[in-house]
Amino acid sequence: MPTIKNLIAREVLDSRGNPTIEVVAESERQRAWAIVPSGASTGAHEALELRDGDQRRFGGKGVLKAVNHVNNKIKRKVRGMKVHNQQAIDELLITMDGTENKSNLGANAILGVSLACAKLAAAEAGVPLYKSIGDRAALLPVPMMNVMNGGVHANSGLEFQEIMIVPAGAATFREALRMGAEIFHTLQKLIGEKHMPTTVGDEGGFAPPLKSHEAALDLLMKAIEKAGYKAGQNVWLALDVAASEFYSRGVYNLKMNGAQKKVKAPELIGYFEKLVHKYPIVSIEDGCAEDDWDGWKGLTDRLGNKMQLVGDDLFVTNPKRLQMGFDEHIANSILIKLNQIGTLSETLDVMRMARQHKYTQVVSHRSGESEDTTIAHLAVGMETGQIKTGSLSRSDRVAKYNELLRIEEELGRRARYAGKNAFAKI
Ligand code: PGA
Ligand code: ZN
């Protein structure tokens, strides 16, 4: 049985130029690495990302404390453990930390070790990571491609953080990716024709200064048509409203019907109903704020039987919060982000729990990413049928799509594309 011989952590940069942690795990014969991502619209209930707070380095965002935890305390304990016993490794990390939100060692330090060890185990077994997660897995996810960035990811002035295209009508993942890229480039031309900047936001989508969310959706509908596709037949739309970002004390402050408004949840939900009526939107993420359970209840009652309602900041990949969702019949889908909970084992547990309760799952990147493609493997290995990993530009986003192309090719005739079946409500 191979054992872990060494762990090496270092500070590297993420896609926004902020420091993050990379961990290398070594056995006698193999080595594997992982880079931890980082959010901007971070949920209040997420596990803690440990940052140094030393204003002389990276404006306080350095991660040397987390790096030191891996290179010293964690390494001493993990050395000698069996490479294949992920559960034991993750449990040790959780016990060593001893806090509810992993604030002692830092969820970034813990996740780096957890993922590097998982990849090392796959390397030792001589299989790709998706296979070591799900031996017979062969389902390629439908990508939700965030081609229009807003909220805290871009300065477009629009509150909705993400407007995504969903090429669920493709026959294969490869075809879905091509459709997405063609629509992306058509959209670029249309924005250029309006003499607006075609620069991109954190997740690689455009961020033109449009006056309303409807204007953004109209432009996207036009791009889909001009690229030769039919919205509602082979391509659909999805939103990540990220409502916690424009919510304060019971009030949502956003552009609605072209004007800035301050509204309560019922009015906001009415606005979503109007949009859903007009546009082929199949999924809305974080339509209400993370602690507005009443708002969420209203949203689920009114739209939950028509479409996918995804909890991101609401559930933060946390079993306790997800259980509250089941108990109260809130949302019908969960966003899966490894660094919200902090270990691979806990993430897989939450995913199994969601599956048991028939909540759909969307494996997701963070707005701060890297060349690490773990989430592509997680989506295939767990056969979630959906992934959200940004637009069709920036290598930190495209790296995941390219990895899915490789996996699809490797699976050959066994590969299946999730397509419309991934969405119970299409
Ligand atoms: P974040 O954004 O990584 O900045 O939290 C992604 C999302 O909200 O889904
Ligand atoms: Zn989100």
Write structural notes for this entry.
The chain is an alpha/beta fold and 426 residues long. The protein folds into two domains: 6-126, Enolase-like, N-terminal domain (Enolase-like, domain 1, 2-Layer Sandwich); 139-422, TIM Barrel (Alpha-Beta Barrel). The protein has helices at residues 64-78, 86-97, 107-125, 129-133, 173-193, 213-226, 265-278, 293-303, 319-328, 338-341, 344-356, 374-381, 395-411, and strands at 6-13, 19-26, 31-35, 139-140, 142-149, 162-166, 236-240, 247-248, 251-256, 259-263, 281-285, 308-311, 333-336, 360-364, 386-388, 416-417. Strand 12 (308-311), helix 9 and strand 13 form a beta-alpha-beta unit. Helix 12 (374-381) crosses helix 13. The protein is globular, with a radius of gyration of 21 Å. The N and C termini lie far apart (47 Å). The model has no long low-confidence stretch (mean pLDDT 97). 2-phosphoglycolic acid binds at residues 39-42, 161, 240, 242, 312, 364, 366-367.
